[in-house]
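Ig-like domain-containing protein (Cyprinus carpio), 247 aa
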Amino acid sequence: MLYKPSGALTCLKPVLFLLKGVFVALTDEIQSVSVIEGNSVLLLLDVTEIQDDDNILWKFGADHILIAKINRHRKIFSTYDGPDGRFRDRLKLDRQTGSLTITDITTQQAGHYQLQIIGAKWSSKTFSVSVYARLPVPVISSNSSNCSSSSSSSSSSSQQNCSLLCSVVNVGHVTLSWYKGNSLLSSISVSDRSISLSLPLEVEYQDKNSYSCVINNHIVRIHPLAQKAESSGLVEGLMRIWSFTLV
C-alpha cells in the first residue's frame, strides 16, 4: 500500500541564505506523514515537472544526510544508501516531478526528510515521517465455566457472569478497548514499546448483544468481532468471527 501525506500539520519557520551578499528568507514547511511498517510512502514536491536548472536534494535526519539528488541538466538522478545502509534498495525517484518514494519502510526510516530545491527559486520543505508497527490480532480468552454453552442448563433464575480477557503482546503506543455494539465499555492505553497488554470484561451469559475487543493506534484499528448466536457459547462466538477495519 502506498501512503501519501494527508491531514498534515504544517509549521513555518524562516530560513536565511546568503546569496551574493543578499539574505534570502525562505520558509521550511513541515508536513506530518504516518505509515504502517512494510508499506511505501510517497513524499511529493507538489509540482508537475521540475525545471532543467533545478538542483533537488533530499536529506534525512538531524545530520542532514544526503539520500537523493537530481540535476536534470547534468542528467544526475541518484539515490544513496546512507552511512549505515538503512536506505539500501528502498528509495525511488520520480525523474519528472522529483518526488521520493520510500519502499518497504521500517522504523529505521522514521524521521525528518528535508527537501531542498535550488534553482531560479529557492525553497525548502520537511516531511516528518512516523512509522507504526503492524498491529497483532487481540486474543480473547475466558477463565469462567459460565462462558461455556453447557452452563445454560443451570437455573435461569440465577445470575450468570462470563469473565473474558482480551490480550495482546509486543505492542507499543496503542489502545485496547472493549465495545458493546458501538458503545465503548472500557479501554487502556500504553505508550511504552514491546509490552503485553490485557483488558478484562464481565458480561452476562444470556446477554445477546455483540461485543468486540479493539486494538488501535493512530491509523489502524483491528478487532475480533464477538457476535453471539443464541445457540452458541459466548467465547465460541468471540473467537469465530474476525474483522479488520482501517480508520
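The longest strand covers residues 22-36. The chain has two domains: 2-132, 139-148+161-246. ok done for today
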